[in-house]
Amino acid sequence: MALNPNYAAVSGRQQVTGRWAITLPGEFNRREEEAGLCFWRPGLTIWLTAYGAEDGLTIAQRLGRDRGNASPDATDITESLDDEIGQLSYRVAETRSDGAVINGLYTYAHGVAGQVMVAAYYESDAELEAARKVSGSIAYTG
């Protein structure tokens, strides 16, 4: 399946806000909506939403909040924290009201002055690996 010709096609490093960038493995369509920025191609849809940092919370505290809010069905949980960025990722298989199962990889990344949430919905193991590449590429440029 091909990309949608009615939307911009992008690939590689994308500066998605003034503080955050990601790298896309291959070509994706791109669109902006109220809910956030969307990159998609057949089999993989990535939503990105950026926020400011809450006053008074450290990166470690924000990661702890995200960990506490994670679905009890979360699997493959990974967490990292260094001087500039903290990141929490996990997978969840969610069942819609029509019975369809949606596989998601959720990533929360925190910098000193902002945070970003990336939700990647994938249809196959190959696309899960692409979603993990995007998640691993999140860069704080703030």
What does this structure look like?
The structure is a single chain. This protein has 142 residues and is of the alpha+beta class. The chain has one domain: 3-Layer(aba) Sandwich (Protein Transport Mog1p, Chain A), CATH 3.40.1000.10. The protein has two helices and nine strands, in the order ββββαββββαβ. The protein has helices spanning 59-69, 125-137, and strands at residues 8-15, 20-33, 36-41, 44-51, 75-81, 86-95, 101-111, 114-122, 139-140. Strand 6 and strand 7 (101-111) form a beta hairpin. It is globular and about 45 Å long. The model has no long low-confidence stretch (mean pLDDT 92).
Tell me the total number of β-strands: 9
Question: What's the average pLDDT?
Answer: 92
Strand residue content = over 45%
**CATH architecture type:** 3-Layer(aba) Sandwich
Secondary-structure-based class equals alpha+beta
The value of Rg in angstroms is 15 Å
Supply the number of helical segments.
2
CATH homology group: Mog1/PsbP, alpha/beta/alpha sandwich
Q: Which percent bin holds the helix content?
A: 10-25%
What's the order of the H and E elements?
A: EEEEHEEEEHE
Detail the poorly predicted runs: none
CATH level-3 fold name: Protein Transport Mog1p, Chain A
Overall geometric form: globular
Kindly report how far apart the N and C termini lie: 36 Å
Structural domain count: 1
